[in-house]
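Re: beginner question about structure tokens

> Can someone show what the tokenized structure looks like for a real chain? I only ever see the sequence side.

Sure, here's an example I had lying around. Input first:
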Amino acid sequence: MSIDQLLGLVTGIIFGFLLQKARVLRYDRQVGAMLLQDMTIFKFMLSAIVVGMFGILALHDLGLITLNHKAMNIGGVLVGGAIFGIGWAVMGYCPGTSIGAMGEGRWHAVFGVIGMIVGAGIYAQMYPFFKSTVLTWSDLGKLGLPEAIGVDHWIIAVIFALITLGLFRWFEEKGL
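And the corresponding structure tokens:
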């Protein structure tokens, strides 16, 4: 096992532990999130995004990593987001939480995992079709938000963090 694989395994275990401790693997939390009645999952994910964003930007600025943006493709984002949302609504779990729920012994989540595997296989088989249709809709190339709007990445990170903190405060005031 390489050091990268070992670090990935350790990071995954820590993330799974935090998912479990935050109780976001629970079906009632998933449904509450979809109904916008329980913001636990959103708070957890926004926290992870902010921490990850600051960590990745710091590593990039120190020259320890390079950023490699994926192509910004509006068609792929819209279709993929719709499929993700439908799957989450039908199953009651997103991909990460379905794996975590299985780890907790909630074996009904296995159907979500099987669905992800089957869906990935279908996508792989249909990729030539998607490449000439959906993936050609508004392909903006490999750019990030800082490049798209011409501002420093730290400005975006700080604004995002402040918006996140404001949302957290609002969620708490509303009892969400």
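Each token stands for a local structural state, so reading them left to right follows the chain. The longest helix spans residues 110-132.
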